[in-house]
Amino acid sequence: MAGPRNKTGKPASEDPVLIELGELLASRRRASGRLQQEVADSAGVSRSTLHTIEHGGAGVRFEKIVAVADALGLKVQFVEKSH
């Protein structure tokens, strides 16, 4: 079975926060050697939803993003902005 490809695509949105989040999750997934389908199955989301998240796409329910983070051993946390 092939491992994850180190391929980057065009971001699905212009939102820098979503793009950074997607890159973080994709990087974590690749570093763990897991395929999109494996993480999607663990998170209970479709592979296309995970793809959208990893490419910074808008319109994905927050619960799905949290589930993906959890499947990757991460927790979502809010921190105060520095001005």
UniProtKB/TrEMBL annotation:
Which branch of life, at top level? Bacteria
Residue span, HTH cro/C1-type domain: 25-79
- One Pfam family name is HTH_31
Question: Which InterPro entries does UniProt cross-reference here?
Answer: Cro/C1-type_HTH, Lambda_DNA-bd_dom_sf
Bilayer-crossing regions: none
Protein's UniProt name: Helix-turn-helix domain-containing protein
Organism, as annotated: Corynebacterium breve
